[in-house]
Amino acid sequence: MGDPNRLFDVSDRRLERRSIVLLLVLTLLWGITFPALKIALRGFPPILLSGFRFLLAGVLFIPLCGLRGAPLVRGTQGTRLHLVIYALAGALGIILLPIGVKHTLANRGSILFNTSPFWVLVLGIFLLPGDRLTLNKWMGTGIAFFGVLLLFTGGGDLDPGASHFGDGLVLGAAIVWGFRIVFLKHFPGQTRTETIQVWQFLIAGPILIALGLAFENIRDIHLDGSVIVSFFYLAVVSNAVGFFLWTYLVQKEAATKVAPFMFLSPVFGVMASSVILGERITGQILLSLGLVGIGIVLVNWQKAGSKPRLNGM
Q1: Looking at 9-154, which runs of residues are DSSP E strands?
Q2: Quick check: 156 pLDDT over 70?
Q3: Could you tell me if residue 309 is inside a domain?
Q4: Choice between 104 and 175, residue whose per-residue pLDDT is larger
Q5: CB 270 within 8 Å of CB 107
Q6: Is residue 58 scored above 70 in pLDDT?
Q7: How far apart are CA 47 and CA 154, in angstroms?
Q8: 26, 61, 71, 205: which one has the fewest Cβ atoms less than 10 Å from its Cβ?
């Protein structure tokens, strides 16, 4: 388990400006992930797609670990159980997500998946005693979530191919993702971000490929330019770069302050879907973006002159 004092120490501290900028960049990159995933699924079965992109991301991380001196096997004795649990949860989530997205609209999947901050709050009650759930956090998360829900009010424009089955799988992936965010805070404090990512990708990737070969037909892979570009975006930008930034930020900051930024991903996702997939941008999207921004400010609001509370006191 991680040092509990480290959890208490960051709970009431404002996010650093650098962290805010990185979170904005990350949510933009992950917003683009959903239309990219929709395009990649035109040429890949969902589980095989996930396995190949995870495996490629893991291979890319190996030299990074060497350059930065992060341990791969040696020096991980006290964290291996954490690493395996985190990787297996990642495999479960990444199975649910692409199958769900395949059966629903890209921006609808983006909205559902990014309900995960709620699951962080709920799970944090039991698993993060040092991450204090203040009124501001509840109110901010609620307002941001309401902003996201506004994107559902144009239900008549939804793709008729969307289904409750697909929605349910994406929501399940969101719950798993929420667990992973909370679980990251329990890694020993010295665990390197690069190590977590290599283990995640190189454990989950082969498992997913094996499942894909068992339950999907590799002959269903059909490649063209858009599918290839989308695949490399998912593997390199969304997985390798995105997961590195996310793990770094969750380890560095309070989970319940970082998580609400994920509400920006569906807003960016809807905008990206408009550009890439030709979907309309409406006034509802702009209003949603405003409410999400207000929610994030509330979650991170701290009175002038107030000091972070230490050791839960």
Answers
A1: none
A2: no
A3: no
A4: 175
A5: yes
A6: yes
A7: 31
A8: 71
Query: What is the Cα 53 distance to its own chain's centre?
Result: 15
Domain around 118: 4-299
Sign of CA dihedral 128, 200, 230, 210: negative
**Residue 226 pLDDT class (50, 70, 90 cuts):** very high
Give me the torsion for CA of 296, 302, 304, 307, rounded to 10°: -150
Q: How many helices (H) and strands (E) does the chain have?
A: 14, 0
Q: Is residue 294 domain-resident?
A: yes
Q: Does the residue 9 lie in any domain?
A: yes
Give the highest mean pLDDT range of 60-64, 96-100, 159-163. Answer: 96-100
Supply 118's token pair. Answer: 């709620």
Domain membership flag for residue 308: no
At 189, the amino acid letter reads: G
CA 142 to chain centre: 19
**Which segments of 116-241 does DSSP mark as H helices, in order?**
116-127, 135-149, 164-184, 193-215, 225-232
Residue 42 φ/ψ, nearest 5 degrees: -70, -25
d(CA 89, CA 263): 21
Q: Which two tokens stand for residue 97?
A: 């997500």
What distances in angstroms separate CA 91 from CA 39, 97, 182, 202, one per listed residue?
Answer: 21, 10, 17, 11
Q: Could you tell me the CA-to-CA distances from 23 to 27, 38, 83, 87, 247 in Å, in that order?
A: 6, 23, 24, 22, 11
Q: What is the pLDDT of residues 178-192, one digit of tens each?
A: 899 888 878 877 788
Say which DSSP state 73 is in. S
Query: What percentage of the chain has pLDDT greater than the value 70?
Result: 80
Q: What is the pLDDT of residues 239-250, one digit of tens each?
A: 889 888 888 887
Q: How far does the chain reach from its first CA to its final CA, in angstroms? A: 21
